[in-house]
Write a structure and sequence with these properties.
The complex is a heterotrimer of chains A (200), B (150) and C (646). Chain A contains six helices and seven strands. Chain A is an alpha+beta fold. In chain A, β1 and β2 form a beta hairpin. The longest helix of chain A has 15 residues. The N and C termini of chain A lie far apart (46 Å). Chain B has two domains: 57 residues, no CATH class; 77 residues, Glutaredoxin (3-Layer(aba) Sandwich). Chain B is 46% helix and 12% strand. Chain B is built from seven helices and four strands. In chain B, β3 and β4 form a beta hairpin. In chain B, α1 packs parallel to α3. The N and C termini of chain C lie far apart (59 Å). Chain C is of the alpha/beta class. In chain C, β3 and β4 form a beta hairpin. In chain C, 55% of the residues are buried. The longest helix of chain C is centred in the last third of the chain and has 19 residues. The chains are: A alpha+beta (200), B alpha+beta (150), C alpha/beta (646). Chains B and C meet through α2, α4 and α5 of B and α2, β9, β11, β15 and α18 of C. Bound molecules: flavin mononucleotide (FMN), iron/sulfur cluster (SF4) (3 copies) and FE2/S2 (inorganic) cluster (FES) (2 copies). The site of one iron/sulfur cluster has 15 residues of chain A, from α4 and α6.
Chain lengths: 200, 150, 646
Amino acid sequence: MSDVTLQIDGKQVAAPAGATVLDAASAAGIVIPTLCHHERLAPFGGCRLCVVELESRGQHRLVASCAHPVEPDLVVRTRSDKIDRIRKSLVELLLAHAPDSTRLKELAREYGADRDRFEPAEGFCVHCGLCVRYCAEIKKLHAVGFIDRGIRKEISFLPEIASRECAGCKECFPLCPTSYLQAAYVLVEALAFPPPPSTR
Amino acid sequence: MDTQAIARIIDKYHGEPSSLIQVLLEIQADCHWLPGEALELVAERLRVPMSRIRHIATFYKAFSLVPKGRHEVHVCMGTACHVRGAPRILERLTDLTGLQPGETDLELKVTLETVNCLGCCALGPVMVVNGKTHGKLSPAAAADVMKTYE
Amino acid sequence: MSRVEQRLTSRDALEQAIRTAASRRDPKKRTISTCGGTGCLACEATDVITAFRDELEKQGLTAEVEFRSTGCHGFCEKGPIVVVDPEETCYLQVTPKDVPEIVSQTIRAGKVIDRLLYVDPLTGAKSVRESDIPFYKNQKRIVFGPNRKIDPQRIEDYLAIGGYRALAKALFDLSPDEIVAEVKASKLRGRGGAGFPTGVKWEFTQKAPGDTKYLVVNCDEGDPGAYMDRSLMEGNPHSVIEGVLIGAVAVGSHEGYVYVRQEYPLAVKNLGIAIEQAEELGLLGKDILGSGFEFHLKVHRGAGAFVCGEETALLMSLEGRPGEPRPRPPYPAVRGLWGKPTNINNVETWANVPLIINEGSAAFASIGTETSKGTKIFSLVGKIANTGLVEVPMGIPLRDVIFKIGGGIPGGRKFKAMQTGGPSGGCLPEALLDLPVGFDELTKVGSMMGSGGMIVMDDATCMVDVARYFVDFLTEESCGKCVPCREGLRQMHRILTRITQGKGRQDDLAALEQLSETAVEASLCALGKTAPNPFLSTLRYFRDEYEAHINEKRCPALSCKALISYYIDPARCRACMICLKKCPTQAIDGGKKRIHVIDQAKCTNCGTCLEVCPAKFDAVRKLSGVPVPPPPPDDQRTIAGKANEP
Ligand SMILES: Cc1cc2nc3c(=O)[nH]c(=O)nc-3n(C[C@H](O)[C@H](O)[C@H](O)COP(=O)(O)O)c2cc1C
Ligand code: SF4
Ligand code: SF4
Ligand code: SF4
Ligand code: FES
Ligand code: FES
């Protein structure tokens, strides 16, 4: 496919059609923070840390660069006061779940996020979906999945599959941005107290 | 529910994986919940991973993974009912039954549930018990309605 | 009445069927239309319908009188509704007991039964004809009006009013491009929320590369307090089907889906019957009207998730997945259902299409404002005298909808705000009531058209609580995929809850504004992007209420339970002992001829005493932000003379 030329932070960048803005930026050596993105997985667009500002036909709007396809003559900014403000908020929201996550602390330093801005929220999981998607898309095992929705959404291992597969794999654990322990912990719990298959 | 009945539902949808939600709705309507064995059969016949079935069964409000009570009480919490006093109706019912929304008592008599809008806004506040609508309620009237169900 | 059963294999056959169906409807023949919409059914309309069938039978009138059970007439407040034609006599709140009298008096003797007529609450004047009732008189019912004239379970009723003629025109007179051009020229904008120009959307799908294209009808209607899509689907499903068929011809689609909430069983049923009957007549399926065109329509029931009204979540759900929205672009018009170009429109949008094709785009575009054309159906609910569905021309001032059609605020209370646009719409104050109804007009003032809910609030409604209510709703309904919505709403909900509980902090408004910006700018789908609207609009127009809650721990509307106290005015208490007996916590001290006093330590603020205190005494008060006055000294608590007669 032919290349598309766009402008990122004032730089002319070429990217293959079908690439995302994040791909194009990375290729040009421009760093955009991400959390839920993984090169080997389909774009998800959950954490929104990768927001960038687009200018097209005179309009400005924020989009998640990890899921937004490149378009010819797109003008992209990866840093601005607004972008930084929003990233700071997002990190603060995530810190309410996982105040000790190394990755989040790093981001907090960069964007000046206050770990006590919001009241603590239950559970370390920030629902980036990396474990779930890795297991489904790469391993095709579906040993871990999401249940419920909204603020009650959780990850949950399927004991029947997990007891068979996870011990020999554990490939998703290091992907977890909050604490590599979260996924492992839920797994152990699921195996130690397997719920009847039909309940959560 | 026997396996054959479930198999019939699945056949009706030609075993199409995309019919998962429709199949689950029919099982839910027949059994008033989604029994584990039924889900396993669905997973196998529709060739969808169990993780997706569990996500769907918990994502959509129509489904329940535990049995429901004999009487299903739905209190409307839609906006029209809200401004006309639905929270006080619900409060009276939770006091009366000792149940929080979404809960079923141990004897499986009553399931108390809230819904977002029943589209009977003219009658608000409204509750539906076993499919029958009771409108223009006061907290006391709601309690009286409940007492008629055994 | 015998059914049209034969497959219609040509346009002439359709015309013939329309003529036959219409000729069976002698305009002079007595016709009884009883509303069998969900609202009326909840008020025992089923019994009224059965009573009519029995009574007509008993009095031997089945041949002479046409009886129809229809969809919603709109005036649900006064249901069950019965209209007798040709005189158009409209009876309200009819019970089965009234039926024999209606049949013998009105049908046989042609007399009007006074007590069943509409009475104007202000003037006491009665209206005989439906169209004289102010609720109807000020409407323009071009989409919703036919509901009253047809039994939705009989396709010949739809044919009798010229149904499927627009389809024939689309199949035989117009090219797909001409149809698209016509819809574009009508300036019809989507009725499902965003108000996107329908013709432009069709063109995208039409031009998108690919042979397989899908059409989808969005009948998810999860907005609490809105039910116009349901009433259209229940009452006139063929108008939606016809609209879809025209769209199918235009974009070149051969398969479509109707996504209906399972909470709407009657809509699912009537739609199913309509599809079946349309298939029997060859109006759906292969070789429609002998044109060679093929289109199949399937029903998919939603399983209870508001977010599935969002188009990409809806597509996920159609594919049998959890309803988590996907990033756009790619837009459904390019890559939708199973990766194929897909055109999604709202129920009401589709129902407008036959009208445009029949009457022409110019006629349609002559109604409304510069940027909003045609009519819109609103569901007018809340603290309003005439609850119901109203169809008004775009551009009508909000004030007319509330006062002329809605009959104003009941109970002698004052109007405070009108909430439009569903859970993520906004609340507008009195000062904006002269605003003309339109997409851009509403957006400009911080609300939106949404799918057409209009919720009226009076001065007893607390605007902070309203914001909390909607944010609570959206928190429950967020799919949970993205952080600004899931986590942002979680925190917004906490903060708003604590403000209504009198625990608000000085920096809470700043935190809410920060969370709002994050959700608006960074959320994946429009649920999160619009979720802060209820907060932002109430802050914009009712900031003083937030400040009262936070700074003075006072709820000006006397509504937030944690901020009010109940108090018995000693000067008004007549010691009738009613509240004393009814108080569930025995918090009231009193006795015969002894002024009652509430023990604030025991009172749970349940409000029962206020509810039961006889109106002529009206002794119970709600207080907020002020200390409860101490009870009168013991020696002043005795009431002399006659006291305890309620
Ligand atoms: C959270 C959310 C809920 C929605 N719910 C509905 C709905 O119930 N019905 C509807 O027609 N559109 C709904 N929409 C709008 C749809 O996404 C879509 O814009 C619409 O169906 C397009 O049809 P239209 O162009 O005819 O309006 C919703 C959007 C969002 C973000
Ligand atoms: S457990 Fe970790 S990897 Fe899995 S969804 Fe949660 S935060 Fe992401
Ligand atoms: S904005 Fe809310 S509903 Fe939409 S994708 Fe994000 S979490 Fe889901
Ligand atoms: S508000 Fe309720 S608890 Fe308090 S005094 Fe009145 S009836 Fe009793
Ligand atoms: S990296 Fe783009 S949304 Fe998470
Ligand atoms: S349901 Fe009967 S008038 Fe609306």
